[in-house]
Amino acid sequence: MGGRHPRAELAEAIGVFALVLAGCGAIVADGFVAGASVSHVGVAWTFGLTIAVMVYALGHVSGAHFNPAITLGFAAIGHFPWRRVPTYIGAQLAGATAAAGTLLVMVGPVGQLGATVPAAELSVTGAVLAETLATALLAFVIAAVATDDRVPEAAGGLAIGLAVTIGALFAGPLTGGSMNPARTLGPAVVSGTWSMVWIYLAAPVVGSIAAMFGYELVRTVDYEDVRTPRARPSETAADTEPEVAG
Fold first, then answer.
1. Domains defined along the chain, listed by start
2. pTM for this one?
């Protein structure tokens, strides 16, 4: 899941830039434009659709990680070289920060530029679980489409985009549904919003690595091994019907 240096890093920066610009831009629009009603659902779809199109646009260049947690997950299971991890994550953080800076220039410090903060009613444990589980769902899907040849390649962008959307729909009201340390750090750096930021750095990494290893376990069992065997053509009703003593 690597790419050719340094074009792969540039692709990662562009992908994360698009994600933060569009996704956080949708959040900002709700607070900036009178009568705007992007809504939580609209924001979730914006993040998901952006990831989907960027996977199709840049997946062949960099592998379309667009997320430090995913990069670390791939490295942990041996599908990405550790020596490339620092440059990939650096590019992702640069893209996210540049996008947040662009939003600041466009609209000013509205809505903390889409920074992620847990809901006031949510416990720290709840926030950690929400981010961990949402990221695990995303990483499990990514591991399937990116590392398993049995999954149709064309389905990658759609499946990953939908996984992001589902995670954002589920975790959005609770934590902002980040699932991505870069998506959190970009707006945090530019807006100065650091409340509970450690959750968004640690939980997605834990969720991603756990899910990647989880899929490695699942993929060792073939569908052919676990499905119910079909009856052979010779096994007719007459062949299998027990004899009745007379």
1. 7-222 (1.20.1080.10)
2. 0.87
Specify the length of the chain in residues. 246
d(CA 70, CA 183): 13
Cα 138 from Cα 183, distance rounded (Å): 14
Structure letter (DSSP) for residue 1? -
Residues 6+ apart with CB under 8 A from 57: 15
pLDDT in tens, 100-156: 999 999 999 888 999 999 999 999 999 999 999 999 999 999 999 998 888 887 889
Question: Tokens 């990483």 correspond to what residue?
Answer: 139
Question: Given this model, what pLDDT does residue 4 score?
Answer: 57
What span, in angstroms and rounded, lies between the C-alpha atoms of 88 and 54? 16
- Tokens 């995303």, residue? 138
Q: List the one residue out of 48, 11, 28 whose CA is nearest residue 103.
A: 28
